Amino acid sequence: MPSPLLWGDEGVVKNRFGNGVSDLKLTKRFYTFDYPFPPRDVVDLFRHYYGLTNRAFASLDDAGQQRLHEEL
Where in the chain are the domains? Predict the structure, then answer.
């Protein structure tokens, strides 16, 4: 399954719609994520609920997971 983050790439969006859209206008916007908990808990949120981060942690041993958690 393609990453939903690719919807932020203009070329990917145009390719996905192909000839199905005659006029496509894109506006880039920045969004600041503001979580109601500290950064350490944000890492845990992504670790458990975001597939890419979840897979990254799953590919590591306990020591590697601890290092990744600290780096993030």
Answer: 4-71
